[in-house]
Amino acid sequence: DGFLKMAITLLSEFPKQIEIEGKLVSSDKYLYESVTNLMSTLVIAPDNPDAGVLYLAHGLNNVINHMKCFDDTSETRVMLFINMLCLLSTQIQKILPYHIPKVESNDTLYGNDENFINEIHQRLTRICEQIIQTLKDLATTNPKRQSTLALEFFSRLIAHGDLNQPKCMKFAVNLWDLAQKSSTPDTQKSAVI
Fold first, then answer.
1. Which DSSP letter does residue 46 get?
2. Is 88 among the domain residues?
3. Whole-angstrom Cα distance, residue 125 to residue 123?
4. Cβ atoms of residues 80 and 107 within 8 Å
């Protein structure tokens, strides 16, 4: 628990550039990999009952929100938010996809507890709103990037969302339309394949 908390805290100090072989390069790729790997660990990390529901995931989301190494419309930040949606949607499952032997994960601790599920739904909504705001901001500054990110968001929504819910289905259609709005014919073709 303490190790994960420290790792999340240290991420807030991640530099915008790092030196590799004597050259300064963007740290986005390395930051993305590190945070995504940490999220994979958080899938099985049990909550501390004294700290609240998914407090480590919440802390990580706050760190991603306030990282100074990102621009306001950073593609990496949006991709991390999309990955956070995947982490949270995994937490809703009755049985998590993997476990550590002899460690009770949140599926055992919470089961189908209504408060736990409601808390996750609220967090999912807030993160979706952040992603949507970034997509709106990109409409005038970089419509092609907006289209690419909307397509990525769409594919994750299809994989992790409940498309039997009318709101979710409508949202997926809107994301698809947005992704197609500024995409090239090649992008449209590859999205269908």
1. P
2. yes
3. 5
4. no
The residue count for the chain: 193
- Per the structure, the complete domain to which residue 163 belongs is given by 2-183
- Assigned domain for 104 exists: yes
Closest CA to 115 of 59, 54, 58: 54
- Residue 143 near residue 187 (C-beta atoms within 8 A): no
Split into its structural domains, the chain has a count of 1
Location of structure tokens 């790092």: 18
| 130 vs 181: CA distance, rounded Å | 20
Does the predicted model carry a pTM greater than 0.90? no
Q: What token pair was written down for 56?
A: 């480590």
| pLDDT, mean of each 10-residue run, the chain (193 residues) | 92 90 91 95 90 92 88 84 96 91 90 90 94 92 93 95 92 93 59 52
- The CA distance from 170 to 54, in Å, is 28
Measured distance CA(63)–CA(167) in Å, rounded: 29
| Rounded-to-integer distance, Cα 31 and Cα 157, Å | 23
Q: Give the pLDDT of residue 190.
A: 53
DSSP annotation of 17 reads E
pLDDT at 48: 86
73: amino acid identity, one letter: T
- Whole-number Cα distances in Å, 26 to 63, 76, 123: 19, 11, 29
Distance CA 107, CA 73 (A): 34
Tokens (6 digits) for 57: 């995931």
